[in-house]
Amino acid sequence: MDSILASSTSTLESVKHFINVACEPHWFMIISVAAFFIFLIGYRFWTKPAVAATIAALVTLFFLASCLDDNFNKIVTKADNVPIVIMMVSVAFLLWLAFRQAAINDERMEKGEPLLEAGADDKVLVWPDLVYSELIALVLCTALLIVWAIVLRAPLEQPANPNVAPNPAKAPWYFLGLQEMLVYFDPWLAGVVLPGLIVVGLIAIPYMDKNPRGNGYYTFKERKFAITSFLFGFIILWVVLIIFGTFLRGPNWNFFGPYEFWDHNRPAALLNTEFHDLFWVNLLGRPLPGHYLMRELPGIILLGGYFLLGPLIMKATVFRKLSRDIGFMRYSMLCVLMLFMLLMPIKMVLRWTLNLHYIVGITEWFLNV
Amino acid sequence: MAKKELITKVWIEEGCIVCDACETAAPDVFEVTEDSCIIRPDALNVEFAKPRSVEIVDAAEECPVDVIKFESETVEVADDAAAEPAAASADAPVAEAKKTAPAEPKKATPAKAPAASSKSKAPSAGEPDPSIQALLEAATSRGGHAGIMKNADDMPASTQDWKAADPKSLPPDARQAKVVEAAQKAKKQSELHRRDFVSNSALAIGWTAFGVGTGISVGPAFGRFMMPNVLEEPDPRIRVGKMDKYLEMVPGGVNEDYKPQGIWMIREEDRIAALNIICTHLGCIPNWLPNDRKFKCPCHGSGYYPDGINFEGPTPRPLERFRIAIKDGIVVVDKSKKYQYELGQWDQPGSFILV
User: Fold this and answer.
1) CATH of domain B237-354
2) A172 in a domain, yes or no?
3) What does the pLDDT look like over A105-140, one tens digit per residue?
4) By a Cβ cutoff of 8 Å, what residues of chain B touch chain A?
5) pTM, to two decimals
6) Are B331 and B319 in contact (CB under 8 A)?
7) Which CATH class is domain B2-180?
8) In a domain, A141, yes or no
9) I need a labelling partner for A27 at 20 to 30 A (CA). Which of A228, B182, B193, B242 fits?
């Protein structure tokens, strides 16, 4: 009996260890990106109610079983983190809802049948339809908030002390994506330029994308590129980063697996390497050039090539038709925004794998990328 | 016998937008002035207005803001008499339309007549005006929706064109006089503008000079006024104890006793120095991790060696050091003066005490 218990415990431990390893940032990122594309490719299969319900049931089961683990339980049920759990569930549900309707519509389009939205009468009366719905929503929200406030204590802490920062110090949950960005880029870039570009890029979408397909009805087949690139930015670069910041970032802003104890003294060796060191010292085997512009030249060339040659290469390969359809200006804007968006995961992976600090690091000018 | 509507009184209510439409339709009756539109004095005479009834009705209908009002009476006239003042072909529908109107004089708001009739114009006598004929043709060919075809021959030009035209080419009538008058007035105004411009710019320069002078003289005083008279700030000089306890530290050691005051005292091989505890990435307060022998920021994971040099995480530069000195056997740290490594200031005297 004891041996069975012991062996099952050890199996459980090895499963936990496996999941902990899978939650190391580079694995987590690879797995999420892979899952993202698998779900997009197989959207007609997994959105079927039976399949989706099975996935939801399995995930719920896994989640509940994991809650038996002390460390997992502690982090998931922390009052601050409950909204993130709710967010994960609601994002998954809304994605399913949208893709379910898109799958049905795409299938009908292929058969030449009328769409889901065809003949739909959108007209709703303010009184009583809207006012009643609002009243019910208001009552339910109030009730939910009251129950929430009673059951989960407000996460108040001791009075603020300017000389002590909580460890880990976390932003409000909706800013955790930004905080995660700040780990990989300088404050002016991750705190000003990139968030500004997110806003500018979202504003620019209707000007770059004048394709009327998908207006007023759900579809994935007709708008594969648009939906994929938007969801990549939203799911991978926003929601996943919030999950990183909430569940995986522990003391000293180190990564911890979901079943790992948040040990404040866990050693972590993250010695930064600079791109100029990699190029001049490791590759060419010579000392760093004296002048900083010469020193950073390889990084500048690399980054310049990324932004200047990237659009041209994409124009000749993957975006041949798109670049012709939308014209020079729109294509340039699209490329710049896309390349900035992709710079994020590229730099993240470089940091996790090579501990790369800066690609271009002109600390003399505070111009570090 | 046919019934015919004759205008007995015409007037303009408030709200004219000076659009020239009425003058185009009935130039004998209406005169568009600079800022309004008036009834010509002649037209106040009933006998003058009556023969121009059709034009007046047209003008009332053309008016985009419907401010032209008139009183009319319906009289019975012989068929030939009915045909006389207006073009026979075009007037018939008007007469038809007005048959139902009551006989007694009434105050009529401009009733919308059929479009075809509204466009018909009365030629003065005899031969039909070719431009009117063209309009009528256009009206019938478009199913009753008359419009002026641009670039067609014999089309009456719009009023705007008349205005733009050379006065000499215009027919010698009141309109020509008006255009000449307007041209003279405009010339006069441009001269006035030139004179205004000179005096205005003199005024502008004067006021700008006054504003700048006031700004220069009063601005600093205002700035001083906005500053607090007393700035409540703790003394930046902090006494961190005797030298002995720092001499006892091993090289690479960190003393956290004065962290609440914002200072880490560190010991290097040959010197002691005071580190600023604020992370150079985004201003959090790092923690000293004795096991890892590093300062580690809990906000974004920046890491520093015990001497303050950055080596991990996103931070771009090392921690700053404060000025440090010995005064009366006590080590004093002055937080108002900082030394930055990347500027080569850590070798400056004052940034360390040699031991």
Assistant:
1) 2.102.10.10
2) no
3) 999 999 998 888 887 777 778 988 899 999 999 999
4) 259-260, 262, 277, 281-282, 284-287, 289, 291-292, 296-301, 303, 310-314, 316-317, 342
5) 0.66
6) no
7) alpha beta
8) yes
9) A228
